Amino acid sequence: MIQELSLPLLLGLFALAGALVVAASIRATALADVIADRTRLGEALAGGVLLGGATSLSGVVVSVTGAAGGDASFAVSNAVGGIAAQTLFLAIADLLHRNANLEHAAAEPANLFQAVMLLILLSLPVAAMAGPDIAFAGVHPVSIVMFLAYLSGVKLSAEVGKRPMWRPVETRDTRHDEPEADNAPGAPVLRPALIFAALVALMGLAGWVISQIGSTFITRFGLTSSLVGALITAVITSLPELVTTMVAVRRGALQLAVGGIIGGNTFDTLFLVFSDIAYRDGSIFQAVGMTDLYWLATGMLMTAILLGGLILRQRRGPARIGIESVLMMAVYGCAVAVELFAG
Questions:
Q1: What per-residue confidence (pLDDT) applies to 90?
Q2: Which of 1, 56, 122, 287 has the fewest CB atoms in 10 Å of its CB?
Q3: Average pLDDT in the 318-333 region?
């Protein structure tokens, strides 16, 4: 039915679904902070697992729906394009945090470890794409490895957050989240958790609508799957990460902001796992093109630059932001130019 709508109605529904995702994510951000405080989960872990997974749900639906429909490039480019876009959002947030470089102020060992895990998880699809075309029941063995690696990474991230073997140097610009009085550990968590779950379901429904409209753009207007996936649906479904990052920075929850992006990107690698399962024409890794691989490399490069910035902890850089933010903007800009003019 969605495929039969006129262009104005398609665009209107697309905007409505995107706005719904954004509105739900704003409320989800505040609830994630409350849940983190009341359960002693910690901001970095809450941002990486709880908030990152929730705001990524609409993107999961888009990729899985595309893969089930047989469009491997759309599914993969939506996943890896979203990772690149969300990493860019940290650079944008750095512009808003005027006191010091965001990566300096949000020093947190768990975020460093999650960035390393993200690089590991992004390297596995590259190996699958470059390796032999093998699949069992249509699923590549790398998908299983990625899923198990993600679960192990979450467990190890929790351990790093609770019992870090080293701590960053404290400076006057370092910021730590302090629980509000009504969010003290031990306070009731059931009600905010239920509201959070309802918002997650709402974002998943909006993701399905976005996936249907994205597929319509590809078939009706002859757009490439990688362009629609990486620059349209990926950006729209990534808007929650932009909003939650900005809201978290304004609230002073800097570890939550950085952890939400890195952890969300880590969760987004599972898009490829779920898409591989949904894609029934063999391994999805062997069905994608070089443009999709380029976006995957872009995500890896931007993550490596971010990790370097978190370690360097530069207080001031060009235009009062960290040098890593400048580089991430440049890398993403080049990737967009390649997609538009050379793809």
A1: 85
A2: 1
A3: 82
Range of the domain at 237: 2-341
Separation of alpha carbons 237 and 275, rounded Å: 16
Distance in angstroms (rounded) separating the CA atoms of residues 257 and 254: 5
Query: Which amino acid does the sequence have at 326?
Result: V
Output the pLDDT for position 203. Answer: 85
Q: Who contacts 248 (Cβ-Cβ below 8 Å, separation ≥6)?
A: 29, 33, 47, 254, 256, 257, 260
Residue 332: per-residue pLDDT: 96
| Cα distances (Å, whole numbers) of residue 125 to 63, 65, 269, 331 | 15, 19, 9, 20
CATH number at residue 165: 1.20.1420.30
State which amino acid sits at residue 2.
I
Question: CB neighbours of 185 closer than 8 A, spacing ≥ 6?
Answer: 37, 38, 39, 40, 179
- The residues with which 139 forms a beta bridge, in sequence order, are 136
pLDDT 10s digits, 154-197: 888 878 877 776 766 666 555 555 555 555 555 677 888 888 88
The dihedral through the CA atoms of 83, 85, 86, 88 has a sign that is positive
- Residue among 342, 98, 100, 65 at smallest CA distance from 227: 342
Give the lowest-confidence range in 8-17, 82-91, 309-318: 309-318
Structure tokens of 171? 């400076």
Residue 119, pLDDT above cutoff 70: yes
> Between 57-68 and 234-251, two packed helices, what is the crossing angle to 10 degrees?
170
End-to-end CA distance of the chain: 31
Give the chain's domain count. 1
Longest dimension (CA), the chain: 58
- Measured CA to CA, the distance from residue 140 to residue 127 in angstroms comes to 11
**pLDDT tens-place string over residues 189-228:** 788 888 888 888 888 888 889 998 999 999 888 889 999 9
Enumerate the β-bridge partners of residue 257: none
- Describe the chain by its helix, strand, coil percentages, rounded to 5: 80, 0, 20
